[in-house]
Design a protein that fits this description.
The chain folds into 2 domains: 201 residues, 3-Layer(aba) Sandwich (Rossmann fold), CATH 3.40.50; 37 residues, no CATH class. The radius of gyration is 18 Å and the shape is globular. Strands 5-4-3-6-7-8-9 form a 7-stranded parallel β-sheet, sandwiched between helices. It has a two-stranded antiparallel sheet with strand order 1-2. It is of the alpha/beta class. 47% of the residues lie in helices and 16% in strands.
C-alpha cells in the first residue's frame, strides 16, 4: 500500500528517511527495511566502509554520509546534505547507540557523559533538526531505538540505563508536543539482540566471569522468555509499524521476547 498514510510515498515521490547507526546491526536492518518499502534512505555512521556495505544491500536510492552524531556540527552537515540531495527528512530513525558496563562507583564522569552524548543528546539533536521540515510538510515519523533498559534497571549499567530512560522521556514529551502536527514520535525497545553490540557484551562477560563466550551468550539468551536473542529484522518490523501507523505516538514498543511485561 502507498499513499500519504503508508509512510512510503507522497505526491512528490518516495519519502526521505535518515537512519543513524546504519553501518551495522539494527541500524542496517532498519535501513534495508525502509529501502525495501520504497523510501529513499540516507545512511549515517562513523565507518564509511560499513555504510558502503549497507548501501549495497538497499533496494533503492541510498545516500552514505559518514559522520559522528555526537558532534552537533556534523549533525547539521548531514541534514544539510540530505536536504540538498532529496529535500527534507520525513522519517528519522535514531539507531546509533552504545553500551557501557561497570560498577556504579567505578563509572567515571567521562563514562557517564559518553552514554548521555550518544544515547540521549544525539537523538535529541537529530529530532530537533528534523522537526521544522516535518512541521512544514505536515507529516513526519521519528523513531528512536531505545532498549529494555529504558523500562527497567539492571546492575552494572547505570549510565547506559539512565541514558535510555532519558531518551524514552524525550520521546514521550516530543510526541505530546507534536501530536496535532502530523508527526509521530515513538521508541522501539529491544532486548538482547543478535548484533555486534551484544557480541561486545558477551566478550566482556566472558572476560570478567571466566566463562566461555558460548556460555555467556547462552546466559543472555536465557534472560529472554523466548530463549534466544532478538533478530535485527524483528526490530525493523517494529520500526516499520511506527512509520506506517498514523495513530501510534508516544509509545515505547518492547521487542524483547516477553522480558518486560
Amino acid at each position: 500500500m502507498t499513499g500519504a498514510g503508508s509512510g512510503a510515498e507522497t505526491a512528490g515521490g518516495a519519502r526521505v528517511a535518515l537512519v543513524t547507526g546504519a553501518g551495522r546491526g539494527i541500524g542496517r536492518a532498519v535501513a534495508q527495511r525502509l529501502s525495501a518499502k520504497g523510501l529513499r534512505v540516507a545512511l549515517v555512521a562513523r565507518d564509511a566502509g560499513q555504510l558502503a556495505e549497507t548501501a549495497a544491500l538497499c533496494a533503492g536510492p541510498a545516500l552514505a554520509l559518514p559522520a559522528d552524531v555526537t558532534d552537533e556540527g556534523q549533525v547539521q552537515d548531514v541534514f544539510g546534505a540530505v536536504e540538498e540531495a532529496w529535500g527534507p527528512v520525513e522519517v528519522l530513525v535514531a539507531a546509533a547507540g552504545g553500551g557501557f558496563s561497570a560498577r556504579l562507583e567505578e563509572t567515571s564522569d567521562a563514562d557517564w557523559q559518553r552514554m548521555l552524548d550518544l544515547n540521549l543528546t544525539a537523538p535529541f539533536r537529530c529530532a530537533r533538526r528534523a522537526v521544522p521540515g516535518m512541521r512544514a510538510g505536515g507529516w513526519g515519523r521519528i523513531v528512536v531505538i531505545a532498549s529494555t533498559a529504558a523500562r527497567i534497571g539492571e546492575p552494572y549499567i547505570a549510565a547506559y540505563t539512565a541514558s535510555k530512560h532519558g531518551v524514552l522521556g524525550l520521546v514521550r514529551s516530543a510526541a505530546a508536543e507534536l501530536a496535532r502536527t502530523g508527526i509521530t514520535v515513538n521508541a522501539v525497545c529491544p532486548g538482547y539482540a543478535d548484533t555486534p553490540m551484544t557480541d561486545g557484551t558477551v566478550a566482556r562477560i566472558a572476560a570478567v566471569s571466566g566463562r566461555t563466550e558460548e556460555n555467556a551468550r547462552q546466559a543472555l539468551e536465557r534472560k529472554q522468555p523466548i530463549g534466544r536473542l532478538i533478530a535485527p529484522g524483528e526490530v525493523a518490523d517494529a520500526v516499520w509499524f511506527c512509520v506506517s501507523a498514523a495513530a501510534v505516538t508516544g509509545q515505547g514498543i518492547n521487542v524483547d521476547g516477553g522480558t518486560v511485561q
